[in-house]
Amino acid sequence: MPTMKANPFNLKCEHLSNPLGVGTPHPRLSWEIESDGQDLLQAAYQIQVWEDKVQGEPLWDSGKIESSCQHEVAYSGSALKIRTGYLWRIKVWLNDGTESDWSEVSSFETGFFSMSDWAATWIVYAGWGGTVKYGKETVNLLRNEFEVKDVANLKKARAFVASTAGAFANDTLRMNLYEFRLNGDKVGTDLYNPGQISEVKKRALYRTYDVHALLREGTNALGLIFASEKVSIELMLEYEDGRVEFVHKGNGWKRIPTGGPYIELWNRDLWEYGGKGETYDAREEITGWDLPGFDDAAWGSIPSNACSPWILEPQMQSVEIYDVIKAQKITKLADNRYVVDFGRCMNGHVAIKAVGPRGTKIDMSFAEALKPDGSIDPSSTYSWQGSISVMRNVYIKRGDGLEEYAPHFANFGFRYVEITGWHGDLSLEDLQANAVCSAVGRESAFDCSDPRVVELQLLSERTFLSNLMSVPTDCASRERMGWPGDASCVSTAECAMFDMRHLYEGWLDQLVDEQNPDGCLPYCVPAAHVLGGIELGWGASYLTVAWDAFTAYGDQVFLTRYYDTFRRWTDFVISLQEADGLTRGQNRFGDWLTKDEIDPVLHENFYGYHSADLVAKMAAALGNESDASKYRSHANQLRDTINARFLHDGVYGYGTQSENVHALAFGIAPENLRDTLITKLCQQLEEDLSVRTGILGTQLLMRLLADEGRNDVAWKLAMSDKPWTWRYWIVQHGATTAMEAWTDMPLRQNSMNKTWNHPALAGGIAEWLYRELAGIKPLTPGYETVCIAPYMPDGVEHASAKIQTPFGLVTSAWKSHGAAYELEVKIPVGIKAEVHLPAGSVHKVGSGKYTFSGELN
Questions:
Q1: Considering only CA atoms, which of 174, 167, 561, 164 is closest in space to residue 391?
Q2: What pLDDT digit, counting tens, does each position of 753-795 carry?
Q3: Taking the model in full, what pTM does it have?
Q4: Residue 302, φ and ψ in degrees, nearest 5
Q5: E strand or H helix at 544, and its extent?
Q6: Structural domains of the chain ordered from first start
Q7: Interaxial angle between packed helices 563-575 and 536-553, expressed in degrees from 0 to 180 and rounded to the nearest 10
Q8: CB 159 within 8 A of CB 211
Q9: Tens digit of pLDDT for each residue in 624-636?
């Protein structure tokens, strides 16, 4: 007889709670299950969906479906309508016979399913429309008015704002492109819209805003500040009596003939990316321009003949403030300059409160490091165009008392800010730093009794968050680009720590747009028109990210949506092979910043193998046995060719750490050689206590050591503070985020100007902390089967982690007392676990809370 209570909760649609603007007619539904029992799995579920309110016959009643699936269940009822609200609930049955009550009702609202659904006018960026006062391109300002005659009976109001890529292509790719305003207020907390999107396929993304609370009876005013190539806005008003009104499908917009207060957003003379600077002259503000009743007679009308973009999709995730950081220290230098230290590197901006006479120019320059004299070191944020930093924020005061300001279109990679022009004495209370990133969620967590370990985890987390800016970027200061090599180094760790699904899907959609007709993948996305070419390691890295996401979330969209893209890439790589079965000349970056020179032909063929191997795995997961066999055969042939050509005297290529690690981690090394190679590798690591691999090899190295049962060596590397280690950054440089390069010198002396906030090299250590020290890793996609096998080093009293899986939080927490230990494990309904204890025993358990204890080896 069933005795346990079951409660379905945390209902999500398209990975979000109660989302607005869903852009698919078959949204994915997910849920978790609470129960006080053990060894429980879902045996069946029933979903009901209504339009608008739960009454009468549902639009979709799935009936009782026997399935253990709790996530990514596609809506399969009657056709959904655009711009419509829906409610849904779920009931589940467990494997012990328990039947739950109906869950609490959740909701989702649709937006638009295709470009043909969008009817509003598209408005094209038009420079300033008049004489350029300051000689720099900047934003357009738009306004429009409309009437609301029965606001008391308004049921809901939605604004849909759509935007293409920037007006100046790559220049405006990495900056916020618009701010939407209504009746004088900024709408939403978004800071970076629409994010980095390719212009190749003329894609537009739309955001959906709930604007009900901002509307007033009578005349209302819409305002838009933008630098997009094209924008469009539609407003929908729905009343209690069922009436629906649409505002501004057609004309009526007017454009400012001058630039307003945003006098400079980027400098095209340097061909420098936007988003790194903003000059705001408050004296040029146009009072009331976004309020009803403003006199816009001098403003120009908007042509109505702009063509539509080709693709329209929802932007379900934006960049927002995730942490507010107080200034830690202010140093006053000569010439009335101040240097403010916020205590750690970040991606974000500084908000100020200032007084002073009209025209006071507050000039803020940003850096990640200091010079010996205490001034900021601009080389830490140099542009890739040359020895110059353009990270600068200028505010010019109106002069009417206390003024508050934060930039609207720029963000900066920084720890330090140098300020000139401050009126009076600058105090810690006059400013704060707002750290920003894409809204990826932070339900997972890690803790440890050893402060050195906590420092490593914080260093990794801060770096990852600094570089999740609509795409996975390489650094917060210099390039801010979607380099796949960097992304693949951290994707396993980031999937454990955050919810990466929306960000990765959006990024890989851009990859589909920019794939060449021959199948070649650009080695940076988006930006194919700027950076093109062939790089086998970077091309294979897109596949790695998609496979890691599938493994973490169990979402087959990462395979089905992108499989053809990856298959065409792999066919292209195979087509490059010469008569001897190897490719040559397709290796631009190698194992970036490795300590030793590696054979470039060997390295690129490692990744030719990796592409074929991953496509074979993807095909098998999709049930495509024909393709799986085909690409497995290609991979095996290339493996044999690599071994015949590059394996000499028991080592690969030039015998470097990176080459041998790649051969072992990818499964290329013959079985009869693996033990010898592993033994030599561990001997070298224990002698040096430092890493010789680059960004690709380092993540593989830490995983390889764990898989081969050598976490003792991995722990020694994690705790070492010798050059070419993570803790060396912290101990020798005071680093608070990961650096781009393994280095034994201050970065300002490094002629390559490596950055101080670069995630790639942190991926291996962050993954190891969650998967090995805390001991949580998936055995099957989506953590449906999970391994709990913590490594408990001497001298560490406790470590714990919780990882948000599609089924709920998995927790592993251990304590050690001398030779004894205690391990507490929590497994949500739907997951089976294998718990590996230090003495070697394995316990297979289902959902529930378990405590294990015993003696350490």
A1: 174
A2: 578 999 999 999 999 999 999 999 999 999 999 999 999 999 9
A3: 0.96
A4: -105, 130
A5: helix 536-553
A6: 6-109 (2.60.40.10), 127-317 (2.60.120.260), 320-438 (2.60.120.260), 445-773 (1.50.10.10), 787-855 (2.60.420.10)
A7: 150
A8: yes
A9: 999 999 999 999 9
